[in-house]
Amino acid sequence: MKIIFFISLFVVVFLCGCSRYDTDTPDTANNKKGFETHLKLKPDGNATEIYFYADEFIKDPCYFFAFKASSRVVEHMVKLYSLKRNLEDKKASNFLSSYGFSWWNKELKLKSDLYEQNHEKLRAEYTLWYHLKSGTC
Hints:
Layout: H1 2-17, H2 29-39, E1 47-55, E2 62-69, H3 71-80, E3 84-86, H4 106-110, E4 113-119, E5 124-130
Antiparallel strand pairs: 1-2, 3-4, 4-5
């Protein structure tokens, strides 16, 4: 009986940690809400084709986005998170590729500008790729 309780508890906890956003469909209401909540920017016309995934089950939650936006939106995000342009290593944060989202174009990422910031006090790392020609982040 105890084993059934612990298995049930594990399943409930596991499901609570899964993304409540639609990782396969852009611009859903929940994806837009996640964009606004975590990126502190209303997506109303500022950003489109918003994909979102949240892994909140792990000790340090991870939030992943892909979207299209103007350079004005990117400038806002660079200021907001004190991001610095990385001119040396465009392959930084390769662990993101291991998630295998279809909406992350690895080739485009290598041709994009890379901005990063590591906030040790907040235990947060921010990474932003921006491809100016396509407006893809």
